[in-house]
Amino acid sequence: MFLKENLTGEIAYSTMFPAALIVVTCFVIFILSLYKYTTSTYKYWKKKSVTFAEPVPLFGNIKDHVTLKMTQGECLRNIYNDFPHEKFVGMYQLQTPTLLLRDPEIIKLFLVKSFAHFSDRGFSYDGHREPLTKHLVNMEGDTWKTLRQKITPTFSSGKIKNMIGLLHGCGVQLLEYMEAAIDSGETEFEMRDLTAKFTTDVIGTCAFGLECNSLKNSQSEFRRMGCAVLNSSASMALAKIVRVFFPKLFKALKLRTFPVEVQKFFIGIVKQTIAFRNANGVHRNDFIQLLLELKNQNEEGITFKLTEELIAAQVFVFFLAGFETSSTTLSFCLHEMAVNQEVQSRVYDEINKTVTKYGLPLSYEAILSMDYLEQCLKETMRKYPPVQALVRVCTKPFPVPGTDVNLDVGTAVLIPVYAIHHDPKYYPGPDVFDPDRFAKDAGDNGRPAGTYLPFGDGPRICIGMRFAMLEMKLALAQFLQNYSVTLSDKSCARIEFEPASFLSCPKGGIWLNVNKR
Ligand code: HEM
């Protein structure tokens, strides 16, 4: 028995040994290859003699963001603060060599003066397989330039002024909703949800020509699809990482930026609306109408063909780029009003003076005249920039002036907006909410150009900037004229950001008490 056992043991050992060895060897080879692959680019900045942040294998310099400890903006702020004397710093987003710009003059140079070398964002997309991704934010080179030139007049002050009636309608729905909720005894509200429903309605009506009233009808199809687009499920977040950092793999695996039903829904709405308006001669002061007019000019012989699908992709990006950016800004602003009651009183006084001077409903001119309200929004976007970093890619070799550095085509560039907006050199006491930083008579308060970037800068600056300011000012004026806000038991005095979110998003929402005036 002993012998047998011994024998069996020896036999097992002798057959197991090579198997275990093979497994261990494969594992070691795998780890070494992974290490080699993930660190293969890490000499890039050293070879270029650019000061760089030391990367860690696999993650480069964005480990804290990838592991969801902090937002991208907060992660870049740490790098920004570590190199106070550099104009720019080399870093790695996973394996991708990236230049982080620190100096305002260099930022202006890249975004504005030398735009021809950095005209794209380098976002990969497949307009054939996913037609909704063929929009201004993603498009590149001459195609982007032609489309941007065509669409720009759609956002002129004259065109936006004509939309004030639509914006008003959404504001009135918000007030009606609040009235009913407060009458039924509600006092505490999650402001982000409220403002998101409001801005969904604004984009629904101004971009898609739909009356969705998400405030009354929380199950509205439009709101449901909107939530599906912004869905931050683990699988969509993973697909996003693959799309950004491994675009070839994204294509090879046929992954999707949005679920197919979202694509069908948005393209379907736009096609139906166009068909209805053409058949019934309907005219409405909204973006879809303006794009339709461009399409018709287009058919009279102009080279660039604005198809229905291309129109759908553009109104879709107005939704993508415009809805959450505006809603979080509104909710952050209301939070600051609740914390800083003296600021809220000044805004209330300004609204009352404006109503006395211009009457109700507030006209375009009345909204424009409210300087202090505008300062409050500007300071909100300084403290909580919805887009925490701007992205560019080098499209033509670029010798950085005053240095020996030559940037190669394809080099990624990041502008750390959040870090700049919190640099005490430009904004003393950066955590203090002080709208007077943007007072007209204070000029730029000695700040250099390139240090205030909530909407970006240069030819790729946010096309919807003016529209967004009008929408947000009108919403706040209508709301604060009728209601005041205070902190509630659920409020956090200091806001933390949701690390998984691409845009600045308050962790746990923004809870406030809302009281009738
Ligand atoms: C508070 C509101 C908003 C903020 C903070 C914001 C911010 C931004 C930023 C930072 C960019 C990138 C700029 C750059 O790379 O230099 C951008 C681009 C863009 N935004 Fe906005 N945005 C807002 C509202 C809107 C609205 C309401 C719309 C449309 C109705 C819109 C449409 C776009 C488009 C289409 C682009 C791409 C422009 C291009 O590449 O040519 N945004 N926005």
Automatic annotation (TrEMBL):
One of its GO terms (molecular function) is heme binding. PROSITE patterns: CYTOCHROME_P450. It is a peripheral membrane protein. Keywords: Endoplasmic reticulum, Heme, Iron, Membrane, Metal-binding, Microsome, Monooxygenase, Oxidoreductase, Transmembrane, Transmembrane helix. It is found in: Endoplasmic reticulum membrane; Microsome membrane. Pfam families: p450 (PF00067). Belongs to the cytochrome P450 family. GO terms for cellular component: endoplasmic reticulum membrane. Heme binds at C462. The keyword Cell division does not apply. Gene3D superfamilies: Cytochrome P450. This is Cytochrome P450, conserved site,Cytochrome P450,Cytochrome P450, E-class, group I. The chain crosses the membrane at residues 12-35. CDD domains: CYP6-like. Its cofactor is heme. InterPro entries: Cyt_P450, Cyt_P450_CS, Cyt_P450_E_grp-I, Cyt_P450_sf, Insect_CytP450_Detox.
